Amino acid sequence: MSDRKKPKTISEDFVKNAIIKYLSRNEWGTNLQFGGLRERGVDIKVRHNRYSRYFLIECKGQGIGRGSNEVAFVYSLGQIISRMNTSGKTRYYYGLGLPEKAAKIALRRLPWQVAKKLLLYVFSVTSSGTVTQYSWQDLRKKQEASKKKKK
Fold first, then answer.
1. Using one digit for the tens of pLDDT, what is the confidence trace for 20-32?
2. Would you call 27 helix, strand, or coil by DSSP?
3. CA-based angle 23:25:29, to the nearest 5?
4. Does 3.30.43.10 match the CATH number of domain 12-150?
5. What is the edge-to-edge ordering of all strands in the sheet holding 44-47?
6. CA 148 to CA 116: how far, in whole Å?
């Protein structure tokens, strides 16, 4: 028997709660809704404290099987795209809330041009609950650096 500890699986609720805390500390706290949201089906909906802007975020937990991080990324992307609001004057931002391993896949595979056009962000959550928010500019830097390494 090995004394190695099995890495802790990050649940969807853990991802949601970490992102909610992060957003609350960063001026996104008005009209915070989460959990079993019926409206638009997103996991987190939050309004900016000073501006009429909303963040709609789809969260996924860490799966067990091989390839589960890829599946978490693809499912969350499909779900947030199907829930995008294109009408009205309210400005919406969108996010994928993912465990760190799935977020790394999103940072590599989500074209920065698409993230820019859709106002789509990636929230990466570590097993300790640390959240890192990535914008299209961050995706662009990472993807361009990766291309340079390959050359």
1. 999 988 878 766 6
2. coil
3. 55
4. no
5. 30-34, 44-47, 53-59, 91-99, 120-125, 131-134
6. 21
